[in-house]
Design a protein that fits this description.
Elements (H helix, E strand, L loop, with lengths): L12 H27 L4 H28 L1 H14 L7 H35 L5 H6 L1
Helix pairs in contact: 1-2, 1-3, 2-3
Length: about 140
Amino acid sequence: MASEAIYKSGQGYWTRMISAAGFGLLLAQGTFWIWSKFGAGATATGKYVAGALALVFLAGVGSLVFWLLGRNHRTVDFLVATEGEMKKVNWSTRREVMSSTGVVIVTMFAIAIFCFVCDRAFAWGFLQIGVLDNSVLETE
């Protein structure tokens, strides 16, 4: 009975649950894809075969996910360590994120305006020395 227990069951709970939810979504999409690929428009026997394939896929991959997230020592230790490290992260406040985002947006516009002015200045300069003709500036 002890060999069937979940390894370190009380540790890394949220990391395991979120990983399981992600794997569950992929598993559901894969099962649906198998059903739609082989079961859509098939005869009654073909639908049974497609259903069986989908169930075998669901059981096989589901068992693999359970083994990875609950029984495999290396994976579980990694997830437990990941959750421990995430608790040490100093998360930014909403105010810090908003002010940093504002700085990025203002800087982006300043660089865009600078590049536009430089482009126009070089185009005008090249037009004056005869490298460009007027049709280049009019089409832009």
